[in-house]
Write a structure and sequence with these properties.
single chain; 3-stranded antiparallel sheet; 2 helices; 37% strand
Length: 193
């Protein structure tokens, strides 16, 4: 696709740091965490990135994106000698989405809520893919990141011998959100529903 862009230069970062306020006590600030997104190379053909929880409502600026998703981030910022709209003058992330599984949705008082799976007591998510098996991605503001999370592949009866820590996010399709890593993960998911 050929199109005219309103900027001349693009700065790309492979990591950024964030801190969060506790969902239970806003006076408590969590430790600083570095979120990485390393590009593919010969030893890591899929690259490597941390997984984060985002809360973002799509708008005209960006293509429609599911809100409250897990994603792998790649950070960038626009630099321009031309005038650009103020809402574009901020850091952005390219993200690939994971959505909550509809198999663990329950209704409470008329509200549909995602609930943890019964046996593991962890939320279940799945990778969002196009029909051609490529990841569904989008560009969202950096400020939409809420929490670093850990995903654990949901293994079936057989596991590919080729799967390892560098490619499990690409080879597996379903994952558990490790809400035992810290209590904030569980509370972040509950609070953004």
């Amino acid at each position: 696709m050929n199109c005219s862009l309103s900027f001349d230069c693009l700065h790309v970062w492979q990591n950024f740091c964030m801190q969060w306020h506790s969902m239970q006590d806003s006076h408590v600030v969590g430790p600083a965490q570095t979120i990485q997104a390393l590009p593919p190379n010969s030893s890591m053909p899929f690259g490597r990135g941390n997984t984060v929880f985002i809360a973002y409502e799509s708008s005209e600026l960006l293509s429609p994106a599911a809100s409250e998703c897990m994603c792998n981030p790649f950070a960038c910022n626009l630099d321009s000698h031309r005038m650009i709209a103020s809402h574009l003058n901020q850091p952005f992330l390219y993200v690939e989405f994971f959505n909550f599984s509809h198999s663990s949705v329950n209704t409470f008082n008329g509200l549909r809520l995602v609930t943890p799976t019964p046996v593991t007591d962890m939320y279940l998510v799945h990778r969002c893919i196009h029909l051609n098996n490529t990841a569904l991605g989008d560009i969202v503001p950096l400020e939409s990141v809420r929490q670093v999370i850990q995903l654990i592949p949901k293994f079936g009866r057989e596991v590919s011998a080729a799967m390892n820590c560098d490619n499990s996010l690409q080879l597996a399709r379903e994952f558990y959100v490790n809400n035992f890593a810290d209590k904030e993960t569980f509370h972040v998911i509950l609070s953004y529903q």
